[in-house]
């Protein structure tokens, strides 16, 4: 089937892509721009939270407490004020996101082995920052309290009495430092590939219809199946090129480790790419202009992003949305890409997702090709 007519059609499509600066920009620049924007901006890592301190004690003990918070990169001791009103004003105008109030008798209580209370205020207007800051502040305070307790018992010759009855040793696999970019960038592969493959395919076919050239192709000896294959083949190659580009940039710029097989990732990605191309062909049969094709593409992309587990965990969603998410192909591809890149798993661990994507690819491409042939007829 790969005859001279098909080769000529594919060559013609590549020439048209090369002559269209907008398509070239979408193909080569947009993936890199999206990767940098989302790779740096779409992160759950909370670091250097601005902290304002009202230290009423000014003792060596209070400075040690501040040093404990300064040593952790969660907080940045940016302001030192002299009243609670100043502290409140800095939090209200968003100059600081957290505040600490050390009482005047803090050092005396610590030295005298008496309990002392330190107030820690957190701006809860941003729940993500507030939650991380709260957990970090609590852990740092607990570590400092444990250190003081050990020192007191050791001074009394009771150092062996502080051994805990249970010791929990935690381990974090696959992403020990919990770097958000390691989790985001494998997901970005699916987001960018779906957007580009769907949009480029839909707009390319609609553009042919707008310019009237598709009628010229219909009257030629080219069969409808050859026309479909010839139109989508260049975008298959472009999608694979963009995947490799994202992986290279992710490794070189963001340091993402590739723990699995890249050939396996590319092979399984073909199922997702075929699905996206089928969606693009289907959109081309609905849209009459390129603007309509772009709008419909965005309409399909946004639910995929939110219901695939890219930004928000599926387990936290209502049960109805979890059921709907099974109809989103991107959900399965994210599991595949993150499983291969981060965990280094093989085909046997991804078999349910591979079966699901295979079903999607066959059903969507078959339905899109049949509808496309009807439009040609």
Tell me, briefly, the overall form.
elongated
Cα radius of gyration in angstroms: 29 Å
| Secondary-structure class | mainly alpha
Strand ordering within the main sheet: 2-1-3-4
So how many helices? 14
Overall tally of structural domains:
2
Low-confidence stretches: none
Mean pLDDT: 81
Description:
The protein has 377 residues and is mainly alpha-helical. The protein folds into two domains: 4-43 and 179-376, no CATH class; 49-162, Periplasmic binding protein-like II (D-Maltodextrin-Binding Protein, domain 2). The chain is built from 14 helices and four strands. It has helices at residues 4-19, 21-41, 60-71, 84-92, 106-111, 127-155, 180-211, 213-218, 224-254, 262-286, 290-307, 319-325, 329-343, 351-376, and strands at 49-55, 75-80, 98-102, 119-122. It has a four-stranded mixed beta sheet with strand order 2-1-3-4, with helices on both faces. Helix 3 links the parallel strand 1 and strand 2. The longest helix has 32 residues, at 180-211. The chain is elongated, with a radius of gyration of 29 Å. The mean pLDDT is 81.
Short characterization:
The protein has 377 residues and is mainly α. α3 links the parallel β1 and β2 (75-80).
Present the secondary structure layout.
Elements lengths: L3 H16 L1 H21 L7 E7 L4 H12 L3 E6 L3 H9 L5 E5 L3 H6 L7 E4 L4 H29 L24 H32 L1 H6 L5 H31 L7 H25 L3 H18 L11 H7 L3 H15 L7 H26 L1
Parallel strand pairs: 1-2, 1-3
Antiparallel strand pairs: 3-4
Helix pairs in contact: 1-9, 2-7, 2-9, 7-9, 7-10, 7-11, 7-13, 9-10, 10-13, 10-14, 13-14
List its salient traits:
377 residues; D-Maltodextrin-Binding Protein, domain 2; 2 domains; four-stranded mixed β-sheet; 67% helix; 6% strand
